[in-house]
Amino acid sequence: MKKRILIIGAGAVGAVVANKCAQNSQAFSDVCIASHHIEKCHSILDNIKNKNNINECYIYTAQVDACDTQDVISLIVDSGSDIVINVCTAFVNMSILDACIETGAAYIDTAVHEDYDVMNAPYPWYANFEWKKRQHCKEKGVTAILGAGFDPGVVNAYCAYAQKKEFDVIDSIDIIDVNAGDHERFFSTNFDPEINLREIIEDAGCLEDGQWRTYKHHSRAMEYDFPEVGLHKLYLMGHDEEHSLSINIAGVKSVRFWMGFSDHYINCLNVFKNVGLLNHQKIQIPGGQNVVPLHLLKACLPEPASLAPNYIGKTCIGILIKGTYNKKPKEAFIYNICDHQEAYHDVSSQAIAFTAGVPPVAAALLIARGDWDIKTMVNVEELEPEPFLSILNEMGLSTCIHEAPIDDELSLPRTLCA
């Protein structure tokens, strides 16, 4: 039986999710695109029609207040949705998750919940909110797959695959993410500025030598020579997947996340921070009006979806793993290369949104056919990785592996098509 899909969120990632759901009418009968901003939903639907991506799906739009659990419940019931894909802001994860638990709909998200008033949340992050609902999901038989974007998400599946197929023991995991593209704008974030800029200025937390450690943001950096996109400077950051991988990958001692930023990007960020534009609390301006500086900055920046037409270049996201195999030291880099122009040709998207939006649709396909319909709450690394990686390859996100003993030259990559 084909499944009914409810997509909550109509930003750049939501547009990718909607397009990819439309392209997979063999599994989905109905697709509802919902957001507080109904005009954005209409725009996505128009784009799908213009690209002739609808096939046999019935696709329509709806307005919803994702902060209001009861409103989400009503929409799930009215639409008869079987699977909810949450690509809304991370501030509303729990209200959507609660609605799914109440209605029995499967739940998929792409990032850990955030409390708007809390920066530098206690470790591990998932334990603050989502994992508290795990027993509820199990008792009600509700499938909830957490962090099913790319990072977190696909990189978690890479770790699961490495643990199953490539290593006997994993000692360290370094998630590395670089966008080597050019969007021709002076400054922009590639997804919601409110979430993106907050995470960049948070402390850089990581697991090292079995201990959680915290560093000032941008205080640690390294360079890495990526396949196809070359040498880039990367900065240590705190990130979602560290907090589940540190628990679910047996014996791992270090889990870190590194992201590439240009000097220009860092300079702009420092100016924004130093003049107070990254403040997420209200201030009063002359005339008595209360404004949130970060909201003002967000309003001045380009919409992430608007970057797509002129974006050129590629992204590279992967995991650098060190450990042992057959009692010998081993290092492997498991990664994806995504081209901005190819993403635009497929779904009118830039590669950042494409890499984040395709994986939750792959997860929905696996729930629909039963492989991942596990009737409880999990992070992606707790699931079988091969079916996920295989579907991703079919949907435009292939996986490659460079591997070699430590201190030797990396071999030529091999493509994984599980």
Q: Which keywords apply here?
A:
418 residues, alpha/beta, 8-stranded mixed β-sheet, 7-stranded parallel β-sheet, globular
Polypeptide structure, described:
- The chain has an 8-stranded mixed beta sheet.
- It is built from 13 helices and 19 strands.
- Helix 1 (12-22) packs across helix 12 (351-369) and helix 3 (69-79) crosses helix 4 (93-103).
- The chain has 418 residues and is of the alpha/beta class.
- The chain is globular, with a radius of gyration of 20 Å.
- 34% of the residues lie in helices and 27% in strands.
- It has helices at 12-22, 38-50, 69-79, 93-103, 134-140, 154-166, 193-201, 240-248, 263-274, 293-300, 340-347, 351-369, 385-394, and strands at 3-8, 28-35, 58-63, 83-86, 106-109, 144-146, 169-179, 204-208, 211-215, 221-226, 230-237, 254-260, 283-284, 290-291, 314-325, 328-339, 377-379, 399-404, 414-416.
